[in-house]
Amino acid sequence: MANILIIDDSKTSRKILRNLLEAEGHVIVGEAVNGEDGIAKFKELRPDITTLDITMPVLDGLEALKLIMNEDEKAKVVMVTAAGQKNKMVDALKHGATEYISKPFEPEQIISIISKVADEKN
């Protein structure tokens, strides 16, 4: 199982991700509410996987992704995006995102994608 950092400005999204991932045996090592805090937590915690919302205040997900990849080019980052943000998702994948999850959340999709990324990490 993986140590996971959740970066999302939505308390509801963080709670859904936490509950689903912990139920699968993953450990949520930290949470952040914006990209700036997320970068600091990433540097401190060095998670196996980071979930990163693409639209956030202070520092958006795409800019945060670039900083994470500069910090650790092998980082496993799963972007979280709302429907209709295809262009941003393509940019995120070009900048090193491993995978993406779409909102509204489908529990099976989250579990499948995180499990796949966790298996790649090992």
TrEMBL record:
Keywords: Phosphoprotein, Two-component regulatory system. Residues 3-118 form the Response regulatory domain. SUPFAM superfamilies: CheY-like. Signal peptide: none annotated. It holds the Pfam family Response_reg. GO terms for biological process: phosphorelay signal transduction system. Gene3D superfamilies: 3.40.50.2300. The modification 4-aspartylphosphate is found at D53. PANTHER family: PROTEIN PILG, STRESS RESPONSE REGULATOR PROTEIN 1. May play the central regulatory role in sporulation. It may be an element of the effector pathway responsible for the activation of sporulation genes in response to nutritional stress. Spo0A may act in concert with spo0H (a sigma factor) to control the expression of some genes that are critical to the sporulation process. This is Stage 0 sporulation protein A homolog. It comes from Mobilisporobacter senegalensis.
